[in-house]
Amino acid sequence: MAEQHPFDVGIALEHSDDGTLRGRTDPGWNNMVGPFGGITAATLLHAIESQPDAHGAPLTLTVNFLAPIADGEFQVSARALRTNRTNQHWYAELSQDGAPKTTATAIFGIRRETWSDTELIAPDVPVPEDLPEPGTPRGVAVWIGNYDMRVIEGPYPGPDDGPSPSSLTKLWVRDRRGRTHDYAALTALCDIFYPRSYVRRAQVGPAGTISMTIYFHADSAELQSVGDDFLLGCARGNRFSNGYFDQSAELWSRSGALLATTHQLVYFKA
Amino acid sequence: MAEQHPFDVGIALEHSDDGTLRGRTDPGWNNMVGPFGGITAATLLHAIESQPDAHGAPLTLTVNFLAPIADGEFQVSARALRTNRTNQHWYAELSQDGAPKTTATAIFGIRRETWSDTELIAPDVPVPEDLPEPGTPRGVAVWIGNYDMRVIEGPYPGPDDGPSPSSLTKLWVRDRRGRTHDYAALTALCDIFYPRSYVRRAQVGPAGTISMTIYFHADSAELQSVGDDFLLGCARGNRFSNGYFDQSAELWSRSGALLATTHQLVYFKA
Predict the structure, then answer these.
(1) Which position among A13, A171, A255, B108 has the lowest Cβ density within 10 Å, counted as fewest Cβ atoms?
(2) What architecture does CATH give domain A6-110+127-268?
(3) Are A104 and A63 in contact (CB under 8 A)?
(4) Residues 160-179 (A) with a CB less than 8 A from some CB of B
(5) Are A217 and B241 in contact (CB < 8 Å)?
(6) Cα gap A21→B131, rounded to integer Å
(7) Residue A67 contacts B, CB cutoff 8 Å
(8) Given an 8 Å threshold on Cβ–Cβ distance, is B118 in contact with A240?
(9) Does the structure's ipTM exceed the value 0.95?
(10) Confidence (pLDDT) at B18
(11) CA-CA distances (angstroms) from residue B53 to A214, A225, B79, B183?
């Protein structure tokens, strides 16, 4: 039997008799506290995708992080709230011992050809092959080891870095072991960016996403054509105040297709 | 008895015996089909705010529009899913005859002073007093008459306008009858922008928000200091394809405070 890719292990769910789904945290996806938010978000999207009545492909997903997920088993429920002719609205919840830990709302839909244009301009950056391969991850967060991240601008602050007037990070990223980018993988990648406050202040400290929204622009064929190639991620903060900041980010294909735009609200201490 | 401001009539809710809230669509807030999405979003935020166990002030709100709201009565339920020390997670639903029409998730929280900075740069624009007052609204959408909107750039397309390479709209907006900007009013204003596809193509056609997310940056004191003054709104689309586009927008105070950032996914036909 072929071994499952670590990403698929991370988002794996089993159907149980009461109609809910059961999953289990995977140590390979650990963050500082609980699992990487991106794998949790991907798990919730995957829960919806794998429902027999799911209709169309993801258009948007909002994930709210209510409380840390403890190591071990969790339950996921996913419920279609409304099915229209061209779209479908979902509510999903990840819980442990009956307490909700993460919630998601999603809209799935049918895409049909219309007038189209990407107004946002793709940044001009060096190709990933011209950037150094990342070293062994520093071990702060285990999940980072699952990705090959090549930072162009706005790195995770090192001991010699000083404050920066800009929180902008540009990086190339792909799965280190070559998993293709489907909607679940893209969901996880939308949460790949370390807190923008770290980049601004060159200091790490308590910080965590409390809400993340994704707008999926790529249709299935476009995603498929990207395969497991590097994606270009760009992220910046808009306003930092009173313990919270918002981040806006984009994921681009190498050929310049805007695959997803994504936004977060992050709490931080500073 | 003092007459209620039209905005407060629009978001009014009555507590009923079964713990749900009852509201009623107001013809003064009509859009082409059903009420203006902004007033619906504000009603859901207001439903949460008015719960006796609400804790802190709004940090983020995501509203999904499932189906058109019919003229008449509706029910709203709001449920705290989790209360943490500094934040609280909510789920709210607006329904008619038992069918959900609009859902919302929100996070409320306590703000505490931290390092702060607005990284996004406020655009340099003329003051609202130097721009023409809007004429009588064209009557396409009744709700527009509730606002004094003064467009700086990217107007609603007129018969003589041609396609534009940019979907950017910049406008000043305030309540026409002088209502102060609290979180509910700010929520409605986040949905003030006509579809970005109209600006690009200089054509109106079927289009509607299917999901809207708001990050509230202003604390209560900052909002209070704005009073009922004009706010500067800027909105642009990132990618238009396959019947959907995303919009990113900001609301600024006249003094340059970034009060809210907000994002939408919009369906359109073209």
Answers:
(1) A255
(2) Beta Barrel (2.40)
(3) yes
(4) 166-167
(5) yes
(6) 57
(7) yes
(8) yes
(9) yes
(10) 82
(11) 30, 50, 10, 17
